[in-house]
TrEMBL record, chains C, D:
Family, as annotated: Belongs to the PurS family.
Underlying gene: purS
Signal peptide feature range: none
Keywords tagged on the record: ATP-binding, Cytoplasm, Ligase, Nucleotide-binding, Purine biosynthesis
Superkingdom per UniProt: Bacteria
Protein name stated in the entry: Phosphoribosylformylglycinamidine synthase subunit PurS
């Protein structure tokens, strides 16, 4: 039986179809989830894809966080279900307090779209087990509200607990504190990051690299072995 | 001017009874004979609402009254082709790209609003063209944005450029449409008239093509999307007042605020409606709003339509009927739906949080009838509004100064005397604002979204995969060169066409069809009208020769400050198809040892060149000669070479000439090049000439023989000019420049200007 | 040092997508009884020297030419007490 | 119908590049003497019914949970006179 990975569509979500494709390329079944449905259709994991849900009006992720589907996802995430938030999905996760901190306008105030080098700081999460600790990867980055911020105390705690999952290399693209590109919750099942692994799963498309595929094969491995 | 709310409602009956009532036709921009013609059509004076409709629909913007006698040639001279499924006249043309797929694309301008409010002007420009594409039944899959600004170092450019760029990005990024290309050009002639052209391309299956027509009496007219507000109402303030002062009221600039989130919902909602085959006809609301949508839908159908204007959802309850008819509120669509499908239609809209309202129905008759609080305020033959607008044969004449301009030969400009000077001019060229890297702009656009982007800026063309199974794809490039067109508008238009064609072919795709945006000054100036006539003639002749029909486009006139018009700026978008995107040809030189070939003939051609601008601030002489048969041959060679794996990089030569192209390919690939000036050419001409019909390619040594044999057999000059090697560009016997130095010059300019 | 606040709001006839999005979300969050929401910008300026009529006139000019685009926005200048 | 205004500003310790960009541009435009600029959001809420303590308490809750993200922002609620 193949693993079922849910991909949520909020109004204004953009990368849902790409994320479904990435899930399929990795060999799992992609299950579309609709923001108004509380029912997660027995999926084994959930991805909150990128985009501008509700236009990013008010704050990125602020309105989506209150959708019916998030009620169940918050509950399930706390119970250990793997959840990945990419870009806008990461913003939804911080607004939902599943992950600490907040996202601010990039320090240079512009939308930035580029191929971004990252270091995978830890393979000890549901979404990074297929990478080596310290492995360097390049995947697309594209956002305007990507500056990660949190209180010093929270940052220290994240570092101490090994919950900084990705760090920007070769230049911080948005002013994120401590070059943080992605973090996890304490249990390691909930991961959020700004760059887009789903855009780096096919050699021909985008940057021509497949460095993002490991996210999806990682969760698949975990689900199959579970 | 405030609206007089208690003003008497001008019904059709009232209009018939008060033939002598004065009307503000002049203030609304109508000419006396146009007003007389409206009275003749109706057999009475128009009501206020009718006058509103005619005045916007008969405006230059909507009726093409100055340009249509010239645009006719695009139909008359159209090349024979099976590729065109829907031609000029619909929201956008549709091209058959094989495997059951059809592609629709169109380019439009949003120049004037973008100067007044750069962010919103550009944003709503993107929004408008996306709805045109959607209305054809297609899923929009990419956008492009050819932009032109005043001098790079002018203080106002700092306001206009960042605003426009973030508007294009803010809207397109939020919609989830990859931006795969465009242009950024600086020239003082665009100082008070920046050009914001926007292109959208969409994909559908043949059977999904939808047309803007209202037929089938009893079918419902559904308005859906955003509520209607009081924004962007051109001349309505005139109508709303009873008295007019001598000078006439000032025209309020028609600036609207876009809501890309609403548009994203509109796209998804509309695509779901298409999937369930719920519409009989559909039209987007753009310029002239409901006036345009209702009259065009009715006119293209059986004619009869009845609309209850009270039912239109409003953002502002105080709007008058005239204002509702003329409002250009964004993010709205109008659909014709069979009665038994209405319920499902509304349910899908509800799912996507899109407001949808039945505002009327198709009727047996042939009149467009609009009611307000039960009273009839419009009763017109829709065709007379939508299609029978005035046509002008405006006088045109070759300007007096044209001869002097052409006589001012750029070939006589002082050329670099030493190798050191040559080197210096190369650096100056690749670092000049027009030739510098545009990454500062394009990095603000999402080029990855939708996961089908094969090539995007700075590649020669943008390429999108449209079928994941077969890897079928399309490529598009847009080009225009106002300097060339100023020197000779006929040739300039053909050079724009040739360049876009060459760009598409360089990436390995076969050019199929074009769309164009014609940006010119005032049609009331005979010199401008001559430029327009020459450019359209050049384009039509060029398309016939290249076999690429014009599928649609847009005209933007009155781009001028005082008496000074912009350079005539025809912008051409060429669409090509590639049956397997795996064999696309990128521009990067990335394999050391591969041979660099220059294809085509290099002549001493510097009129309008980047070199003449950058080094001498000069514009004069004749633009490069055009040979479209040669362009076609070059295209065929580039496509064959890509299909047979004979080349692994290609880059077309255009502004800046060979040295610019080689620099870009080297920087993109991270490798240098050793170049040798071919026999018969001097180094200066070799590096800077802008002869058309040329490209550079990288050929693996193993393929060299096969490649040169092919070129020889087909009669295309191919000169081996060097090899990919090292980390500098070295021109033998002249100079060498490290890539780092080139990169600093090329990439540092725009950020420094805008910092 | 005094603080001057410049509030910039979209003109009433201009669409305010942000305000609308907020308003539409409120009932879902259990907040009723808000019939309209408009969202604008607030600039807090720290002014060196006295905030006299001349200074206020300059700030008004700044708001008019730079902080707001009066084609679509209105602004208000207030001295923070 | 009464209007309640909610002002939302970034906390003082959080970098405000938008405000900084405005401040940096001012001298170029000929406006001197502004030592700091912060940019925030202003929400104008039209409240149905009376704006009594209960209503204000609800609006404060709305600001706290929704209009502002208190990880990074402070807010102030005011009844418009
Ligand atoms: N420069 C042009 N070349 C070819 N067709 C044009 C050109 N300008 C306008 N058209 C065609 O004229 C028709 C009306 O144009 P337009 O008013 O821009 O369309 P829409 O109402 O969809 O915005 C369209 O079919 C358009 O493609
Ligand atoms: Mg249209």
């Amino acid at each position: 039986m193949t693993a079922r990975v849910g991909v949520v569509t909020f109004p204004g979500t953009l990368d849902d179809r790409d994320t479904q494709r990435a899930v399929r390329v990795a060999g799992a079944e992609a299950v579309p989830l609709w923001h108004r449905d509380k029912d997660l259709q027995q999926v084994d994991a959930v991805v909150l894809p990128g985009g501008f849900s509700y236009g990013d009006y008010l704050r990125a992720g602020a309105i989506s966080r209150f959708s019916p589907v998030m009620e169940t996802i918050i509950e399930q995430a706390k119970a250990g279900m793997p959840v990945l938030g990419i870009c806008n999905g990461f913003q939804v996760l911080t607004e939902s307090h599943l992950l600490p901190g907040a996202m601010l306008r990039n320090d240079h105030l512009h939308f930035v779209c580029r191929d971004q080098k990252l270091r995978v700081e830890t393979s000890a999460t549901a979404w990074t087990s297929q990478y080596a600790d310290g492995q360097e990867i390049s995947i697309p980055l594209k956002n305007i509200d990507g500056r990660y911020t949190a209180a010093e105390r929270v940052l220290d705690e994240l570092e101490a607990e090994g919950r900084v999952v990705f760090r920007y290399l070769d230049g911080n693209p948005n002013g994120s504190l401590r070059d943080i590109a992605g973090i996890s919750n304490a249990a390691g099942n909930v991961v959020g990051l700004m760059p887009h692994p789903e855009h780096a799963v096919e050699p021909l498309i985008g940057t021509g690299r497949t460095d993002g595929l490991g996210f999806f094969t990682s969760v698949l491995k975990k689900l199959v072995s579970a | 001017m405030t609206l007089d709310a208690v003003r008497h409602l001008d019904t059709v009956t009232h209009a018939a009874e008060t033939p002598e009532a004065g009307q503000p036709w002049k203030e609304l921009g109508l000419k006396e004979d146009e007003y007389a013609r409206i009275r003749e059509i109706l057999g009475r004076r128009p009501t206020g609402a009718e006058l509103a409709m005619y005045s916007v629909m008969w405006s230059e913007h909507c009726s093409y009254k100055s340009s249509k006698v010239h645009l006719k040639q695009f139909g008359e001279k159209a090349p024979q082709t099976d590729a065109l499924l829907v031609g000029i006249g619909e929201n956008a043309g549709v091209v058959d790209v094989g495997q059951g797929y059809a592609v629709t694309f169109k380019i439009e301008s949003h120049n004037h609003p973008s100067y007044i409010e750069p962010y919103q002007g550009a944003a709503t420009g993107v929004g408008g063209i996306v709805r045109d594409i959607l209305a054809m039944g297609a899923r929009p899959v990419a956008v492009m944005d050819p932009l032109r600004f005043g001098a790079a170092d002018h203080p106002d450019t700092r306001r206009v450029l960042p605003g426009i760029v973030s508007g294009v990005g803010g809207y397109g990024n939020c919609l989830g449409l990859p931006n795969i290309g465009g242009e950024v050009v600086f020239d003082p002639c665009y100082q008070g008239n920046p050009l914001v052209n926007a292109l959208c391309v969409g994909v559908m299956k043949h059977e999904d093509i939808h047309l803007a027509q209202a037929s089938g009496p009893g079918n419902k007219v559904i308005l859906y999307g955003a509520r209607t507000g009081g924004d962007g109402i051109g001349g309505v303030s005139v109508l709303a007042s009873e008295t007019f002062d001598a000078t006439g009221p000032s025209r309020r600039p028609a600036v609207q605020v876009g809501d890309p989130f609403q548009e994203k919902l509109l796209i998804e909602c509309t695509l779901e409606i298409f999937r369930e085959q719920l519409v009989a006809g559909i039209q987007d609301l753009g310029g002239a709003g409901l006036s345009c949508a209702t009259s065009e839908l009715a006119s293209a159908g059986s004619g009869g339509m009845r609309v209850e204007l009270d039912t239109v959802p409003l953002r502002d309850a105080t709007l008058s009927p005239e204002e509702i008819l003329m409002s250009e509120s964004q993010e709205r669509m109008c659909a014709i739906v069979e009665p038994d499908k209405v319920e499902r239609f509304l349910a899908i809209c509800e799912k996507w949080d899109v407001i949808a309202t039945v505002i009327g129905e198709v009727t047996e008759g042939s009149q467009l009838e609009i009611f307000w609080h039960g009273e009839q305020i419009v009763d017109v033959p829709p065709r007379s509004v939508a299609h029978d607008g005035p046509t002008y044969h405006r006088p045109y004449a070759r300007p007096q100064w044209q001869d002097a301009l052409q006589a001012d030969d750029a070939g006589k400009l002082p050329r670099p005397g030493t190798s050191a000077e040559l080197r210096e001019q190369v650096l100056k060229l690749v670092g000049s604002p027009n030739q510098a890297s545009k990454a500062w702009v394009t990095d603000q656009y999402d080029r990855f979204v939708q996961g089908n982007t094969v090539l995007a800026q700075p590649e020669d063309s943008g390429m999108i995969r449209i079928d994941e199974e077969t890897d079928l794809g399309v490529a598009i490039a847009t080009d225009g060169n106002g300097r060339f067109a100023k020197l000779d508008p006929y040739t300039g238009a053909q050079l724009a066409l040739a360049e876009a064609y060459r760009n598409v072919a360089a990436s390995g795709a076969k050019p199929l069809a074009i769309s164009d945006c014609l940006n010119f000054g005032s049609p009331e100036d005979p010199a401008v009208m001559w430029q327009f006539a020459e450019a359209t003639r050049g384009l039509a002749d060029g398309c016939l020769q290249l076999g690429t029909p014009v599928t649609g486009g847009n005209v933007s006139l009155y781009n001028q400050t005082g008496d000074v018009a912009i350079h005539p700026t025809p912008v051409v978008a060429v669409l090509g198809v590639i049956d397997d995107v795996n064999r696309r040809t990128p521009m990067a030189f990335k394999d050391e040892g591969h041979l660099i070939y220059l294809l085509g003939d290099t002549r001493e051609e510097f009129g309008g060149s980047a070199w003449s601008q950058v080094v001498h601030d000069h514009l004069g002489g004749l633009p490069p000669a055009v040979d479209l048969d040669r362009e076609r041959l070059l295209g065929e060679i580039l496509i064959s070479a890509s299909r047979d794996g004979m080349i692994d990089a290609a880059h077309d030569l255009s502004d800046g000439g060979l040295v610019q192209a080689v620099t870009e390919s080297c920087l993109r690939g991270g490798h240098g090049a050793r170049l040798v000036v071919p026999d018969g050419l001097d180094a200066f001409t070799f590096l800077f000439s802008e002869s058309a019909g040329r490209a550079v390619v990288a050929v693996p040594r193993s393929e060299e023989l096969r490649f040169t044999d092919m070129c020889g057999a087909r009669g295309l000059p191919a000169a081996r000019i060097g090899v990919i090697d090292g980390d500098e560009i070295d021109v033998q016997g002249e100079f060498s420049i490290p890539l780092g130095e080139l990169r600093a010059a090329h990439e540092g300019t725009i950020p420094a200007l805008l910092a | 040092m005094a603080r001057v606040v410049v509030d910039v709001m979209l003109k009433p006839e201009i669409l305010d997508p942000q305000g609308q999005a907020v308003q539409r979300a409120l009932p879902r969050l259990g907040f009723d009884g808000i019939s309209d929401v408009r969202q604008g910008k607030r600039f807090e300026l720290e002014v060196e020297g006295p905030v006299d009529d001349a200074a206020l006139a300059r700030i008004r000019e700044m708001a008019e030419t730079f902080l707001a685009n009066t084609v679509i926005e209105d602004f208000a200048v207030k001295v923070e007490s």
